[in-house]
Amino acid sequence: RTAVIEDVRAVVQSHAGSATERVSLLAGCAHLCARHGIDFSTLLQEGNFFHEHTVLYWAIVNHSEAPSAPFEFIASVLAHSAPLTPETIKEARRACIAMGNQDIFQFLRLCPEFGALPADDRFLLGVLVPPEEIEIETMEGPGRPFSVKFKIPLFRKRMVLSRQIKLEFVARERLWQLSFFTQANPTFDLSHRERFRDGEWYVGLNLGENSPRTNVDVGLFI
């Protein structure tokens, strides 16, 4: 067990070789654990694996992969870690926020264990994970502005039947949550339900966990 931990710690470092080499080394660690009856998934998800974080956290923080296979090593860590615990999922989200990496966050959203859709949306869309496309464009200037483009399949149908659509993205070291909702299913402060009128659609912007408060100046174009 000690030898495997040391090997995995070496593998998740940013200078540990190419993604393909690191994937191979990780597979070797998994094989060694299987031979000695060690649960590799549990080991990878230990919260104090290295400096109080999981292996997946460090795989994201030290991410550096070729454009041809940008998430090869992260995908391997995900596969070996499954089934993921809620804390591992939180750790991965924290890492994406800390690094301000929307590309990895979007990749994780497309993994069923991270971003499985509500049952109604799964039935409507015929898919398990969110199908939205989210593109961030950062700009220079005061306040560090950015723009976000969304492509939301079956938007009207989902609003009519599910009554809410929740989108998450990472920008400027924060996790943002954009929600479209109706009075029947508001996604924000339920104590103010009287503010919402039946039959109307609303949109709200909120900050997610581990995201410092900030002032916003927002425009929405549909």
Order of strands across the biggest sheet?
3-4-5
Structural class by sheet pairing and helices: alpha+beta
Please state the CA-atom Rg, rounded to the nearest Å: 20 Å
Oligomer: single chain
Count of domain modules: 2
Q: Please report the number of helical segments.
A: 10
- What's the average pLDDT? 87
Envelope shape: elongated
Work out the helicity level.
Answer: 40-55%
Instruction: Give the SSE order as H and E letters.
Output: HHHHHHHHHEEHEEE
Percent of residues in beta strands?
A: 15-25%
Largest sheet: 3 strands, antiparallel
The N- to C-terminal Cα distance equals 54 Å
Q: Are there runs of 5+ residues with pLDDT below 50, and where?
A: none
Number of strands: 5
Description:
The protein is of the alpha+beta class and about 220 residues long. The protein is built from ten helices and five strands. It has helices at about 1-10, 20-35, 40-45, 55-60, 70-80, 85-100, 100-110, 110-115, 120-125, 155-160; strands spanning about 135-140, 145-150, 165-170, 175-180, 200-205. The model has no long low-confidence stretch (mean pLDDT about 85).
